[in-house]
Design brief:
transcription; elongated; Rossmann fold; five-stranded parallel beta sheet; alpha/beta
């Protein structure tokens, strides 16, 4: 991602490095980037309770010549879709504020993940899925529902698919794995010891492992192929929110890749599954008292 497009993310990442006065400027910009593009330098200085020279120093610290150029780059960031900055929810936030922050955080995380994913690795992951004779989806904690969602997606490909969230069952399945089986292990941090051990056991028995996890994490290193996901939220402190959204979206990407690889001849099979649900639903427009 180029410097212009990533300006707001740079400001957020460097927030704690700035001096007290420049940090005030950054906080005003991050609170409402769109409004900041409409401020004059005097208005921004007043909103941040700093001097105009402080605003100019802030601009130079981010490699821009002055406030007009900073506003231009902020506007370009907004137009690019990279401007949604993850902001922590405060105790006194009202429903409008925390709703905007949560949605903004999710959008920012998805954009960051999209930029980080390597299309060549996506292709390798789809290869593993297409070639597998049996696929096991494993996840623990917040990643466990994601593994179950994968079961609902991937059984449609006429493959033997399982999903497990019990670490003892995961370990037993890995211990009797064979060549041709694929273990898709989902872990946002990639630091869960049990999952890393399961990956190692599966590979020792000839199976392949696809990690959906953080880059350079222990799980990524233990996997045959790893789809690297950035870590925009601290899952050691906060309730996981955006992590599952990213994981689910990555699995949608893989399912789409498999559908396209199967070609048009596979469409009747998917349609048959979809149509099997028709009798289980009330027709659209039916009203009941």
């Amino acid at each position: 991602m180029d410097r212009v497009r990533n300006l707001l993310e740079q400001i957020r990442n460097r927030l704690e490095e700035l001096n007290k006065a420049e940090k005030k400027v950054a906080e005003v910009i991050l609170l409402n980037p769109q409004q900041a593009t409409r401020f004059s330098i005097a208005a921004l200085a007043q909103a941040a309770s700093v001097s105009e020279p402080t605003v100019n120093r802030f601009c130079r610290s981010f490699g821009v010549s002055g406030y007009p150029e900073l506003k231009l780059q902020l506007a370009q960031s907004l137009a690019s879709g990279a401007a949604y900055v993850s902001r922590a929810v405060e105790a006194d936030d009202n429903p409008e504020a925390y709703t905007q922050k949560i949605f903004g955080s999710a959008i920012a995380s998805l954009d960051s993940a999209c930029q980080a994913l390597d299309p060549a690795l996506i292709s390798k992951a789809v290869d593993l899925l297409i070639q597998a004779r049996q696929i096991h989806f494993f996840g623990l904690g917040a990643s466990a529902p994601v593994a179950m969602d994968a079961l609902h997606k991937f059984f449609r490909f006429n493959l033997s698919v399982t999903a497990h969230a019990d670490v003892l069952m995961q370990r037993m399945i890995a211990s009797v794995a064979h060549t041709g089986e694929l273990f898709v292990i989902i872990s946002y941090t990639g630091r869960t010891r049990e999952l890393v051990e399961v990956a190692r056991i599966a590979r020792e028995n000839g199976a392949s492992v696809l990690g959906v996890t953080a880059e350079n994490s222990p799980l990524a290193k233990a996997s045959t192929v790893s789809l690297n996901i950035p870590l925009p939220e601290d899952t050691d402190i906060y309730m996981p929110m955006t992590s599952r959204i990213i994981q689910l979206t990555v699995l949608d990407v893989l399912a789409t890749g498999m559908t396209l690889r199967r070609g048009v001849d596979f469409q009747p099979h998917l349609r048959k599954i979809k149509e099997s649900l028709n009798d289980s639903r009330y027709p659209v427009g039916d009203e009941f008292n």
